[in-house]
Amino acid sequence: MADPMARLELFPVTTRVAGDPPRLFIDGVDVAELARHHGTPLYLYDQATLDQAVDAYQEALARHYPGPSIVVYAGKAFLCRALVRWAVARGLGIDCTGAGEIQIAVAGGAPRARILVHGVNKTPADLDAALAHAAVLVVDHLGELERLGAGWLQGASEPELWLRVRPGLAVDTHAYRQTGQEESKFGMGPAELERAVRLCLDRGLPLTGIHFHQGSQFRDPTPLGAGLDRVLEMVARLRDLTGWTPRHLSPGGGWGVAYHEGELPHPPVEPYVAFVAQRLVAGCAARGLPLPTLHLEPGRSLVARAGVAVYQVGAVKRTGPRRWLLVDGGMADNIRPALYGARYSCLPVVEPARPALGPAWVAGPYCESGDVLISGLPMADVAPGEWIAVPVSGAYHLAMASNYNGARRPPVLWLAEGRARTVLRRETPADLLARDVG
Question: How many whole angstroms separate alpha carbon 391 and alpha carbon 43?
């Protein structure tokens, strides 16, 4: 069987094995001590890993794109005030979907200039929050634009408007993560886009950008080229018909990460950024279009590796040939295996280098047969009471967490400069009852 220590490459960049007995440390902090003190399930976020990911994107953009550019953090991956403060300090934009995420961004100190708002079916409350706090509102469809023109933007200088385009092409990924295909629920086709641009120009609306997205968790940027070419063709046609060209363009994001040792190494961001930047430069030159400000939305590739989930094994049981490690978290804090069939890995927190006894299935406590976090992973002879750490848990876990079976969402610790601090506390039974007014 493969060396289990190869899994350390999935963990945050500061992860080390040290001590007696040997155990996992992240940014110099003993994970076993954190689990003992804070309980489990427990989520850890390593700032050094976040910083390294941002550096890679910003440096690649500086090397490959001659025009202005910005990296935009996807709030839907995970959002809390501490993460907002970090994103603002690193010069990132913050992509929010709806009034809830907008309020978190504002509470975290994000200025209007950094907030961009998405949403396929924005409510009046979402639009009001965007008008009050956002620099950019990405319009998904003509009906939304009609509502904006009818009242929300009257007399307002902000936010600027972008239009979301449906290029008719998706990337190679799980069907649930594809967004750019013709039958997608997102964005406008070419005819709708032309009508939307004319409507904005006729009504004097502050139209400044174009956005599109083709999917997420992909490793080959090639399909983005055809999508970008299609969008630039639409832009060139709009210029010829109306004289309008976008000052800003976002081809979305979605670059993948490795979740399992079978997917290692983590794909480097340089080829992705270089491909998008060079294709945009060449495409604009070929069509006589001015270079727009390029906005990239890296999504999970900024934050996924920075996060680690820690669980405690409550029971070990066998059913036929399967060895089950039953832990105290699962689909309530990580729905991705049940939703996408996502594959994960893990290591024991203490003595992680122990050889594998054989395959194990890691499952949670919830009343669903689909509550299986990890399937058939070679694992040591783990006993009840031990902790296991699941890497690459920073994106789309807690953002999609639920209270199923009365689960209380876990706390989040922020690791930086050798210290851990709580940035989200554990939910309590009182929290579950707080909304119950019956």
Answer: 10
Alpha carbon of 332 to those of 214, 217, 303, 386, 399: distances in Å? 28, 22, 20, 21, 11
Say if strands 293-296 and 69-74 run parallel, antiparallel, or are unpaired: parallel
Residues 400 and 173: their CA atoms lie apart, in Å, by 19
**Tell me, which fold does domain 4-39+306-434 have in CATH?**
Lyase, Ornithine Decarboxylase; Chain A, domain 1 (2.40.37)
Report the alpha-carbon distance of residue 193 to residue 236 in Å, rounded.
Answer: 12
User: What residues in the chain have per-residue pLDDT under 50?
Assistant: 1, 170-180
Two tokens at 285?
């030159």
Axis crossing angle, helix 222-242 with helix 190-203, rounded to the nearest 10: 40
Rounded CA gap, 231 and 210, in Å?
9
Rounded distance, CA 111 to CA 102, Å? 11
DSSP lists the bridge partners of residue 419 as 416
CATH number of the 48-302 domain: 3.20.20.10
Paired residues of 293 in beta bridges: 248
Q: Which residues are catalytic?
A: 367
Provide the pLDDT for residue 177: 40
State the Cα–Cα distance between residues 216 and 174, nearest whole angstrom. 9
Domain ranges of the chain: 4-39+306-434, 48-302
